[in-house]
Specification:
The protein contains 22 helices and 32 strands. It is of the alpha/beta class and 649 residues long. It has two domains: 486 residues, ANL, N-terminal domain (Rossmann fold); 128 residues, 2-Layer Sandwich (GMP Synthetase, Chain A, domain 3), CATH 3.30.300. The strands form nine sheets. The chain has an eight-stranded mixed sheet, with helices on both faces. The chain has a seven-stranded mixed sheet with strand order 5-4-17-16-18-19-20, with helices on both faces. Strand 19, helix 17 and strand 20 form a beta-alpha-beta unit. Helix 7 crosses helix 11, helix 9 packs across helix 10 and helix 15 packs across helix 17. The protein starts with a helix and ends with a helix. The structure holds adenosine-5'-monophosphate-propyl ester. The site of adenosine-5'-monophosphate-propyl ester has 21 residues, from helix 13, strand 20, strand 26 and strand 27.
């Protein structure tokens, strides 16, 4: 890792902003000085760009650290900020969403139309008994109804929990239960790679699986046209309810700290964490960063973020940031290569997309299939490119700039997390001289440090732990139902400084370079997965005695899930090694979802452990990455690694 970063940091290409870009840039360099002069006043100013039904007088209350309160005596309505106020300002005819379905269907919504839809949906939900504080689970494809649902829930002061459509019914059930959701909004199915994938079916399985569930109703959007089973009294068609609903709905104010959503993310234990975000601070930072980082000109830009609403990027930079800013955006349902490998570029050409925000894993897969694919389309409308989810290697960065950006678009590499809610480190395109591979500098108003284990700043050119040293508006407010785990996970190490779980290094200019996770969290295609969660899925299979999972470096996906499994003696002859591996990969997909399916499963006789019984994943990672196995002296039985490597070579 250290050698790789040393090589990276010799990257000497620099890209200062052009004179033309600077001339029309939304923010200039003075913003850093303004934020540094008075951080809290800076954030209060940003918050005042929103509409407050009741203005706040207090900016930050950190008395009860690490439980922060921002703007807490103010009251606002998040959906009103994303919709009604734009219509009232005379922008009702501006397109909010251009939707492109995978099969080629398309529709668009102006701000006036989207507002009307959200009002109707809020009336539907209110009619189903949803009130402030209730939880609504959302399990939908990337279709406008996903955004409409999130905003309708927010409009009522209720709390959404969006569950990515790729998660299994088991995962869905545990998330519904953890949050005691009252309503589930889903679809019959969605389109992916030319086929319909069922969603309602998984909701039925989730609700049937356990005992009594908190869910009273399931609202079903018609999308895939696939057959669904129906539970009368519980299940309702979205279309029918919307057609019958009143179009008038007044947005009521809710306190700034009213919970907005829960989003489950993987941590270092087997159980996903329900990361809680609230209203005023979250909307302040998502809208500010969306404006400043992407240099958003809402009257002229066409913005496209390719993330699914099931992830934090889809929450902050599809739903809330862009709509709070009155942006026009593209939303696409499907995969990049359906029905042909140029689909994304075709969409950019069709809508004249000016800002594209995507993940390095996608860029690397486009690099692999070749530049002739994007080069067949007119991409000249693009003027800002963004990257998120994992470090972008300089080679991919340059390809992105040259082939997609025509050699002159700035690239902003944005570092942040589900927990941070919004971008924390990034270049600003009209201000920063860009360095391929670096996440560059803290956003104005954000305080970041790199510390050693003892909490001392490591200074320049040394690796350490990335820490956010002052509270920020869009910060995580807690883990749903588990305040102790919240404190333990993020705050135990450095007190009132937030420990992000990432390693980082600052170069001689003070720019930040990310070194990957320092805990047992993997990053596969920019998605977070926990080794412990996959291990516990594996040991839940009757064949498995023990399992260890590592994230091995992978050219396409950043990291890949590699599992080492010990089969129970009684099961040793139940299946061949190939059969067992296929079975276990499918079992993980069923337990968690296809995204967690291991790329490789190795059957081994024993796992390497320390004398105290701790699995030495570091050694397994060496094997999975094809390296010579490192120091084995702390192993309880030093022959274990030899047996593993002999068997696998
Ligand atoms: O390791 C960092 C990596 O993704 C983690 C956060 O994952 P998640 O909560 O799923 O959010 C992903 C989208 C914001 C971080 O702890 N990560 C995210 N962005 C970057 C990154 N690593 C390096 N560079 C980035 N730009």
């Amino acid at each position: 890792m250290v050698t790789r970063i040393d090589n990276l940091m010799h990257e000497s290409r620099r890209f200062p902003p052009t004179v033309e870009f600077i001339a029309d840039s939304v923010v200039g360099p003075e913003i850093y000085a303004a934020a540094a002069a008075d951080r809290l006043a800076f954030w209060a100013d940003q918050a005042r760009t929103l509409h407050w039904h009741k203005p706040f007088t207090r900016t930050l209350d950190w008395e009860d650290a690490p439980f922060a309160k921002w703007f807490d005596d103010g009251a606002l309505n998040v959906a009103y900020n994303c919709l009604d106020r734009h219509v009232l300002a005379g922008n009702g005819d501006r397109v909010a969403l251009y939707f492109e379905g995978e099969p080629g269907d398309s529709r668009s919504y102006t701000y006036a139309e989207l507002t009307a839809e959200v009002k109707r949906a809020a009336n539907v939900m209110a009619g189903l008994g949803i009130v402030q504080g209730d939880r609504v689970a959302v399990y939908l494809p990337m279709i406008p109804e996903a955004v409409i649902t999130m905003l309708a829930v927010a409009r009522l002061g209720a709390v959404h929990s969006v569950i990515f459509g790729g998660f299994s019914s088991e995962s869905l059930r545990s998330r519904i239960d953890d949050a005691s959701a009252k309503l589930v909004v889903t679809a019959d199915g969605g389109y992916r790679k030319g086929k319909v994938f069922p969603l309602k079916h998984a909701v039925d399985a989730a609700l049937a699986a356990g005992t009594e569930s908190s869910v009273e109703h399931v609202l079903v959007v018609k999308r895939g046209g696939n057959e669904v089973e129906w539970q009368h009294g519980r299940d309702l068609w979205w279309d029918e309810e919307m057609a019958a609903a009143d179009v008038e709905h007044e947005a009521m104010p809710f306190p700034a700290e009213n919970p907005l959503f829960i989003l489950y993310t993987s941590g270092t234990t087997g159980k996903p964490k329900g990361v809680l975000h609230t209203s005023g601070g979250y909307l302040t930072q998502t809208s500010f960063t969306h404006r400043a980082v992407f240099d958003l000109h809402p009257e002229t830009d066409i913005y496209w973020c390719t993330a699914d609403v099931g992830w934090i990027t889809g929450h902050s930079y599809v739903t809330y940031g862009p709509l709070a800013n009155g942006a026009t955006q593209v939303m696409y349902e499907g995969t990049p290569d359906s029905p042909h490998p140029g689909r994304w570029w075709e969409i950019i050409q069709k809508y004249g997309v000016t800002i594209l925000y995507t993940a390095p894993t996608a860029i690397r897969s486009f690099m692999k299939i070749g530049r002739h694919i994007p080069q067949a389309f007119d991409l000249s409308s693009l003027r800002v490119l963004g990257s998120v989810g994992e470090p972008i290697n300089p080679e991919a960065w340059i390809w992105y700039r040259d082939i997609i950006g025509g050699g002159n678009t700035p690239i902003v590499d944005t570092w942040w997390q589900t927990e941070t809610g919004a971008i924390m480190l990034s270049a600003l395109p009209g201000v920063t001289t860009l360095k391929p591979g670096a996440a560059q500098v803290p956003i104005p108003g954000i305080a970041i440090e790199v510390l050693d284990e003892a909490g001392t700043d490591v200074g320049l050119n040394s690796g350490g732990l990335l820490v956010v040293s002052e509270p920020w508006p869009s910060m995580i407010r807690g883990i749903w139902g588990d305040p102790e785990r919240f404190v333990e996970t993020y705050w135990e190490k450095f007190g009132t400084k937030y420990f992000a779980g990432d390693g980082a290094r600052r170069d001689h200019d003070g720019d930040y370079w990310l070194l990957g996770r320092v805990d047992d969290v993997m990053n596969v295609s920019g998605h977070r997965l926990s080794t412990a969660e996959i291990e516990s899925a594996l040991v839940s299979h009757p064949m498995v005695a023990e399992a260890a999972v590592v994230g091995a470096e992978d050219e396409a996906t950043g990291q890949a899930v590699v599992a080492f499994v010990v089969i129970k003696e009684s099961q040793a002859h139940a299946a061949t090694a190939d059969e067992a591996s296929t079975l276990l990969r499918a079992h993980v997909a069923e337990q968690i979802g296809a995204i967690a399916r291991p790329k490789l499963v190795f059957l081994v006789a024993e796992l390497p452990k320390t004398r105290s019984g701790k699995i030495m994943r570091r050694l397994l990672k060496d094997v999975a990455e094809g390296r010579e196995v490192g120091d084995t002296t702390t192993l309880a039985d030093t022959s274990v690694m030899r047996i593993i490597t002999d068997k696998l070579s």
